[in-house]
Amino acid sequence: MASLFKYTFSHPAILPDSVFMTACAVFIAGLVGSVQAADINAARKQFKTGQYIQCLQAAQKAIEDGTYRSKRQWWILIVEAQMALGRYD
Questions:
Q1: In a domain, 52, yes or no
Q2: At a CB cut-off of 8 Å and minimum separation 6, what does 8 contact?
Q3: Rounded distance, CA 20 to CA 48, Å?
Q4: 78 in a domain, yes or no?
Q5: Contact 19, 8 (CB under 8 A)
Q6: Which of 19, 53, 71, 77 is deepest in the core (most CB within 10 A)?
Q7: Does a structural domain hold residue 9?
Q8: How large is the C-alpha radius of gyration of the chain?
């Protein structure tokens, strides 16, 4: 075990590229996920505070942009906002 540890850190060119790329991928995925969560939470807050039109517009824009992996939450928010506004058709 000690020889593996010594070998790994005595030859830094073996590991850093893969470790760096993995760390970057995890960081970017977390960043994108937190931005998406912030947007959906902001739209939910608009809905809860009675800003139904703004909520509806934000949700429609999010779906049109297509930058979100899961559109289901946005569609649910659209339906709820439309119902709150009395748009049943």
A1: yes
A2: 14, 15
A3: 42
A4: yes
A5: no
A6: 77
A7: no
A8: 22
Question: 70 is in which domain, residue-wise?
Answer: 17-84
> DSSP characters for 69-82?
S--HHHHHHHHHHH
pTM for this model (two decimals): 0.56
Instruction: Write out pLDDT tens, residues 10-57.
Output: 555 555 565 555 554 544 444 344 344 558 999 999 999 999 999 999
Structure confidence at residue 66 as a pLDDT band (50, 70, 90): confident
| Residue 79, amino acid | V
Based on the structure, what is the number of domains in the chain?
1
In angstroms, the first-to-last Cα distance of the chain is 68
Give a yes or no: residue 50 inside a domain.
yes
